[in-house]
Amino acid sequence: MSNAEKFDAVFMDALQITKEQLPGLTYQSIPAWDSVGHMSLVAALEDAFDIMLDTDDIIDLSSYEKGKELLKKYAVEL
Amino acid sequence: MGLQPYGVCPRFPHKPPEMFDFLAYSPKIAIISDTGAHYTYGQLQAAVDVLKPFFRKGELAFCLCTNTPACIMGYLALLESGVATVLVDARKNRDLLQGLLDIYHPNWVWGPIGAGFGEIFRQMEDYALYAYSSQQHRIHPDVALLLTTSGSTGSPKLVKLTAGNIRSNAEAIAQYLGIDASEKPVTTLPMYYSFGLSIINSHLLKGATILLTDKTIAQREFWDFMQEHKATSISGVPYTYEMLKRLHFFRMSLPHLKTMTQAGGKMPADLAREYIDFAAANGQRFFIMYGQTEATARMSYLPWEYARDKYASIGVAIPGGRFSLRDDHDREILAPDTEGELVFEGPGVCMGYAEGPEDLSRGDENHGILHTGDIARFDTDGFFYITGRMKRFVKIWGNRCNLDTVEQLVHTVTSHCACVGTDDKITVFVTENGLSGSIISLLAEKTGLNARAFEIRIVDAIPRNPSGKIQYADLQALL
Fold it and tell me: Are B217 and A40 in contact (CB < 8 Å)?
């Protein structure tokens, strides 16, 4: 599985959504992405890519696209 | 001097105390909103005075809550007018809200503009006063506020609170936390939730400045806001503190933060210990507290000077309150380290419940005594410890969830089901395969809780005793 596929799979699994829902998805735009969902998403991203997100990145993870951008900082090529 | 019976004052006729004395703090900033707007206590009073003429005592209102200045202005005007007011989540599922409106027929709805609840009589910022129903109500004159018992399930069961309940609880909280006009709490909890409301009330009472936001700790806007305005305190349910830890809270630089408070469920003792140690090392205070909506909000707190020794304890009763333990025969337990039902007495104990409009006319049924449904013990120093629960409910991220109500919801999918739970997790046992998706989405929708709260497990059969009663203990043992 490519990193991009893995990234999508983490979002889909953590928030229980389909691939079609990913583009443009933002925090609190669906019930599953509330603060509880956010923390599961962070934990799942950290596990999947074996990284530890900084505070700044956890609170900046406000959309699907923003998440892709943030992972670059951790040398994860998507 | 002889003791007077509670609530009787021989020299003066009955007059409820004024809730808040805003004019005493007139030029002080009462609220800073996350849009950057500032409101003085004088401005708050002026807004209240604009809205008050619309209201008559004996009416019923719904206040659709958000953590915004306009919402608080409406809430204060309703409270000061003596209108019985139901606080609900403005973002509640519309069907659930409509269900409550259909049961109670409030005269007024104070809610966001655009919500469309009827003719608008007055607007204030992003809120509108809707004339909803002309229903004539019979409401006991002491009923001031009605709070939901579980923020989420849409149950019509409401806790009836008096102005005296609210005032006394806010005063007790302000006393043990030492709240004064220099405090700047940042909101992390919704105001329809008794814990969230208690923070607003106890700080408005003392002329503090509330940093008002609906943003969550998962958002940059929250942190920018609380740092810009130098928040001095933060509050949360156990899950809030788990999230804060994941956010590397222990590495953040928050020099103005002095106080952290926790209620809304039992915090894992090791996590509590971590926060207490952190606070002690940083010149802060961390308060473990315990309460229920039925007692307005707060019943106990762990005094900071005892936090390190007694971190697994809920502490002692708040000023003006008293705890006792009762055995199976309702006799008071006097020996330490003996379990019994925790009973609270104090001026914050609610009048009783309303499950429909006819219950609004009933007066005080509790007489200042609340059977909490929690099992507890006290140690030789008089500190109380929760050890179990008598009733079928769990706390999910601070929201009380009745397992029987959840089970009833699952019944619409399958009749072979049983729900058990621990804090932050409800497990639904079913006997059929392939139902997980539909049950979880139904429960998430109807309760408003994140789907992660629910887990489905398949068993061959739901265990029952010979009389057909579900054996929940057997299922609990499988967790």
Answer: no
